[in-house]
Specification:
Number of helices: 12
CATH topology of the largest domain: Rossmann fold
Strand content: 5-15%
Strand order of the largest sheet: 5-4-3-1-6-7-8
Number of domains: 2
Order of helices and strands: EHEHEHEEHEHEHEHEHEEHHEEHH
Radius of gyration: 64 Å
Largest sheet: 7 strands, mixed
CATH architecture of the largest domain: 3-Layer(aba) Sandwich
Helix content: 25-40%
């Protein structure tokens, strides 16, 4: 197998060093590069230095998502040029380029693809890869780009100690292939001075928050309304109802009309019961009444009962009412009825009158 040489170019280092030499900054956008001329010059330099024919040029660069742009595609189409792309990380930092160079150096050295490797780079990360390639019997020579005279630009000392030889590229090769891009200066626009604005008088200071707080009138506290007695009642005393709450007091005529209505209602209830009930129901009702009251006489439908004096208390009255009733039924008059009757009062409230009416109906109905 005949001997050959291979060239491994770190594009980031090559173009940054060329831009620094031509423009004074490392921006790649500041130079225009003739890539075919630059690659041909480096190939000729490698062949002259080693005396061996070229096997291949490996071009390492970064691309967005690893996809080559138009310029990188043209470089990859050149003869004996192998395009090897990494990718851009955050903030435009290239990723994967140094790793690809190191892997290729070690793999190619193990496979004996070439006898001499020419490396165009200055990165310290390649030191271990160079030493591993040398362990497989390959000679590694470093090409460095000069900046001022013959001093190499941006080459790490560890890498210099690891390689077999350091060769500084002729500056004419860089100057012929890299041209400075002249950027047109943006026109300076001078703004006309604005006319002086008329001085406006300063506003007068207004009242402070403390002045506003002290000048605000303090409202007087609202007085609570005085309580009004609407109704009061006690046992043995006359009930009191305020005039606005009892606008229609009961008179004698209203009392008489209420008593008449009570009698009519009681008569209708009793008549309905006697009409709709059979003799068996009437007998059962009379028997239950006699047992509950301790009497065994007086049929169910007899003459109305007369009032009698209660035996339970000399101060109470017994009332028996109901048409056709022959049973002496004892009922104790409520205390309020007794007090009103004893005093002969007729100015009872509507509430008391309604209570009396309900009591009378209950007496008339329950007597049967």
């Amino acid at each position: 197998m005949r001997s050959t040489c291979s060239v491994y170019i770190d594009t980031g280092y090559l173009l940054a060093s060329a831009a620094t030499r031509v423009t004074g900054t490392s921006l790649r956008s500041g130079i225009h590069v003739e890539y075919r001329r630059l690659i041909d010059s480096l190939v000729a330099l490698a062949q002259d230095h080693s005396g061996l024919p070229l096997l291949r040029v490996h071009w390492y660069d970064s691309a967005h998502n690893g996809v080559p742009d138009a310029q990188q595609q043209r470089i990859g189409e050149l003869a004996k040029v192998k395009l090897r792309l990494g990718r851009f990380g955050y903030e435009g930092v290239q990723k994967g380029v140094d790793l690809r160079i190191g892997l290729d150096l070690v793999t190619h050295a193990r496979n004996k693809t070439s006898d001499v490797f020419f490396l165009v780079s200055g990165d310290d990360d390649l030191t271990e890869a160079v030493e591993e390639a040398q362990a497989h019997g390959v000679q590694v020579v470093l090409f460095a780009v000069p900046v001022n005279g013959t001093r190499p630009h941006g080459v790490n000392r560890h890498l210099i100690r690891a390689v077999d030889d350091l060769h500084v590229i002729d500056g004419a090769i860089i100057d012929d292939a890299a041209l400075k891009v002249e950027l047109e200066a943006a026109p300076v626009v001078t703004a006309e001075p604005a006319p002086a604005a008329e001085a406006t008088p300063a506003p007068k200071p207004g009242p402070s928050p403390r002045d506003l707080a002290t000048s605000r009138p303090i409202p007087a506290p609202a007085k609570a309304p005085a309580p009004i007695l609407a109704y009061t009642s006690a046992t043995g005393t006359t009930s009191y109802v305020a005039a606005e709450y009892d606008a229609t007091p009961c008179d004698e005529a209203a009392e008489a009309l209420t008593a008449e209505l009570v009698d009519q209602i009681a008569d209708r209830v009793l008549t309905s019961f006697l009409t709709s009930s059979d003799e068996k129901a009437k007998a059962a009702l009379a028997l239950s009444r006699r047992r509950s009251r301790g009497t065994s006489t007086a049929p169910c439908c007899s003459t109305p009962a007369r009032r009698s004096t209660s035996t339970t208390s000399p101060s109470r009255r017994a009332i028996a009412s109901g048409p056709g009733s022959g049973i002496g039924t004892t009922r104790t008059r409520p205390r309020w009825a007794e007090s009103d009757a004893s005093r002969g009062r007729s100015d009872a409230s509507p509430t008391q009158s309604a209570r009396k009416s309900r009591w009378k109906i209950a007496i008339r109905v329950t007597s049967w």
